[in-house]
Specification:
The complex is a heterodimer. Chain A is of the alpha/beta class. In chain A, 45% of the residues lie in helices and 17% in strands. By secondary structure, chain B is mainly alpha-helical. The chains are: A alpha/beta, B mainly alpha.
């Protein structure tokens, strides 16, 4: 009799072994080296740590996540190779990175029907055609720029604004929408300047000054923005500076020092120095997985976490609904998602017609070496009107 | 007596014999075996492997073009990716209206016109100055695309899906289909490359490279020869660009940037400047090096990943740079020279003389 129970116990243990957690692969392809790797390396670490946290806490019962962060070196051919490998393996969702890589993959993403969550918040990623399977984690650059213009119009009615943009689709995307919004807001966009990879912006800034520019709005990455605002400080200009997600953040403070004081930055992410659940969560994870201070301080670390979080949440919802985890079930879960996440200022919500996760944004201002919120979370009033005519 | 199957000595008695493509029947036979091997190769490779192989073949075509400009004519070209881009954007514009087999030569011809225009400064300048002129073309190309609404300002221009003789190309067969297309194009254009030196234009290229004043004195026109080199090299790049556009399914400016131009130069140097086989070895070596280094870097990350220092990720760019430096120092004639030495060894083995 005793042997019988031993056999039953052994069979139960074996059965548990066979019913071990289902392994679900999630791949991220982005720049850990090469251009924009200053953001990519932290973004990758955010993904890795969120996955580890989901596994360690058993966040999705019966699922073990195998998250791979691939360094595509900002090379579209590498991104393509990584994406196709993920599709061949049957990954239910893919995490992307650059604007160019995402735009290039759009037709293929549409063809294979695998949900794709990029780190690029370029509106073209989710504009038609081939836009069914791409989901932005937070509001687009276009919406961010219009949100900051709305803030400028509120605090400085009739202000003259210059835009300093990255010479790429990433940089140019918000320009037309911003011009339309400026008309509605009663402010004037006097010039749009593409920023070369120069180290001295004296001529540009003096021209802005001569045109009576009150604000420069940046759609760029932190490096060139830091150079320009340092030059503006050196020249003693009174022009104020503002920028979209990748233009600002702790990276800008590190690069520009006290020249960043007063910089207005629009993003959907909470800051690690804030006293809230998001900051606590980010710090805890950073400490748990041995990340250095610069990782924990970077806004790209929680950005990576949110991207991984959206993917994992969609998998959880598909699993909870009793569906087999696949690209289609995760896609359906994403379309119905309403996730009150900890990392950003609003819930991640999607629908068939809305592929923007967090619709809310905040304007933060650089004060004494940190970014402090100067607005409550809000949604841009004009973006949908100027971009979609709604 | 000359053995038609093996080359046991130099028995050539005429200029025509000296310029034959194949010295022996065994060389012809080995080429036929190689071509058959390449045709059946996809049966043994996965879709992922095919993707890499396709990329190597497309890059090989581009490097053939660079070898005409830089290898044969000795004109440093830092804007080769822009020629590729001209071909790719041409393909994106005409592909909705033309079958792909017509898109490829059209893209090549448009790139050739661009090449001839870029080559015009070569009538008056050379060396470093010409290199800067090609760099200028690269930058002008990127700027022009970036400011052209018709070209999506450098954003993606999707390529149409191809149907060929009722065969619809989709996700599963994409890389297999483009492998065969690229392979056929490459074989044709590689024969063109090989035959180039047998023509008076080809010999002019080399003569101008070696000493343009002497070439001028011998009745050649160095300026026209250089423009011709740019046009022909750009034609190869344009065709490669169109193939790349189809292969990657969309045209995006980042694929034709200065970094890619530098990568092509690295491929030409590592393969062996001015050599046919080097144009294959260079892209294959650097692409496979990168992929293997990627795998190696993940392995390194598994066993040694100190916080804050991404040792694994640093290995890939390090390996790329190191490979180029080591080749420049220890084997400036590239992998083609190793291939030559290997062939020489087997030609004399076992003791033909």
């Amino acid at each position: 009799m005793k042997n019988k129970w031993t056999l039953w116990a052994l069979a139960a243990v074996l059965a548990m072994g066979f019913a071990a957690a289902e392994k679900v692969h999630i791949m991220w392809s982005g720049a850990i080296t090469g251009p924009t790797s200053d953001a990519g390396k932290y973004y990758a670490q955010g993904i890795e740590d969120y996955c580890s946290w989901a596994n360690d806490t058993g966040y999705v019962a019966g699922v073990e996540f195998v998250c791979e962060t691939r360094d595509d070196q900002y090379n579209n051919a590498n991104t393509l190779r990584n994406f196709e490998e993920a599709v061949d393996r049957g990954d239910p969702v893919f995490l992307g990175y650059s604007t160019g890589g995402t735009l290039q993959l759009k037709p293929l993403v549409q063809e294979v029907g695998v949900p794709f969550i990029p780190a690029s918040y370029h509106i073209g990623n989710i504009d038609p055609p081939d836009n069914d399977y791409i989901f932005l984690p937070i509001a687009s650059y276009s919406e961010q720029v219009i949100a900051v213009l709305e803030y400028i119009a509120k605090v400085s009615p009739g202000a003259k604004v210059a835009m300093a943009i990255h010479p790429s689709p990433f940089g140019r995307a918000p320009v037309e929408d911003a011009k339309k919004a400026a008309q509605d807001l009663g402010i004037e966009i006097v010039e749009v300047q593409e920023m070369a990879k120069g180290l001295d912006y004296t001529a540009t800034l003096k021209r802005f000054e001569n045109k009576g520019v009150d604000y420069i709005v940046y759609q760029n990455v932190a490096g060139p923005v830091a150079n320009m605002i340092k030059d503006a400080k050196r020249l003693g200009l009174k022009i104020k500076h503002a920028g979209a997600h990748y233009a600002g953040g702790p990276d800008l403070l590190r690069l520009a020092g006290d020249a960043a004081e007063g910089f207005l930055w629009v993003t959907a992410y909470y800051m690690p120095h804030e006293d809230n659940a998001a900051a606590k969560f980010v710090k805890e994870l950073g400490a748990k997985y041995g990340r250095p201070a610069d990782t924990i301080e970077s806004v790209h670390y929680p950005s990576g976490m949110l991207a991984a979080g959206i993917a994992i949440e969609a998998i959880k919802e598909a699993k909870d609904a009793g569906k087999k985890i696949s690209a289609q079930s995760v896609y359906q879960a994403l379309l119905q998602m309403n996730w009150p996440n900890k990392l950003a200022v609003g819930p991640v919500t999607y629908s068939k017609d809305d592929h923007v996760g967090v619709d809310q944004l905040r304007v933060l201002e650089a004060k004494n070496g940190t970014f402090e919120p100067v607005t409550e979370p809000f949604s841009s009033a004009l973006f949908r009107k100027v971009h979609y005519g709604k | 007596m000359r053995n038609p199957w093996t080359r046991t000595g130099n028995y050539k008695t005429s200029y025509a014999q000296d310029t034959t493509i194949f010295a022996t029947y065994s060389e012809q036979a080995s080429l036929v075996v190689f071509l058959i091997g390449m045709l059946v190769l996809p049966r043994f490779l996965s879709r992922g492997d095919m993707q890499i192989l396709d990329l190597i073949l497309i890059y090989a075509l581009a490097v053939l073009g660079l070898n005409i400009i830089t290898g044969y004519a000795g004109l440093i070209n830092i804007g080769h990716a822009a020629f590729l881009g001209v071909g790719a954007y041409t393909a994106a514009l005409v592909a909705p209206y033309l079958p792909f087999w017509l898109v490829l030569p059209v893209a090549g011809l448009v790139a050739a016109v661009a090449g001839a225009v870029v080559g015009i400064p070569a009538l008056r300048i050379k060396h470093l100055y010409l290199a800067i002129a090609t760099l200028a073309f690269q930058l002008i190309f990127e700027w022009a695309v970036g400011h052209s609404p018709a070209l999506e300002q450098g954003g993606a221009m999707a390529m149409p899906r191809v149907v060929f003789l009722g065969y619809k190309v989709g996700f599963k067969n994409h890389h297999y289909f483009w492998y065969y297309v690229t392979f056929v194009v490459l074989v044709i254009m590689a024969f063109g490359f090989r035959n180039l030196l047998r023509t008076r234009f080809g010999r002019s290229l080399v003569a101008v490279r070696d000493n343009d004043r002497a070439a001028d004195a011998m009745g050649m026109d160095p300026g026209r020869t250089k423009v011709f080199a740019f046009a022909l090299g750009a034609f190869y790049a344009g065709v490669a660009g169109a193939l790349y556009a189809y292969w990657s399914r969309a045209v995006v400016i980042e694929d034709y940037s200065l970094m890619i131009s530098i990568k092509f130069l690295a491929m030409a140097i590592v393969g062996g400047l001015g050599t046919l086989v080097g144009s294959f070895f260079g892209p294959a070596f650097l692409e496979l090096l990168d992929i293997n280094m990627e795998t190696f870097s993940y392995w390194i990350k598994e066993i040694y990943n100190p916080p804050g220092v991404d040792v694994g990720s640093a290995i890939r760019p390090l390996a790329f740079g190191l490979a180029i430096v080591l080749f420049l120092i220890f084997e400036p004639r590239g992998l083609a020279n190793w291939w030559r030495l290997l062939r020489s060894y087997f030609r004399n083995w076992p003791f033909k003389y």
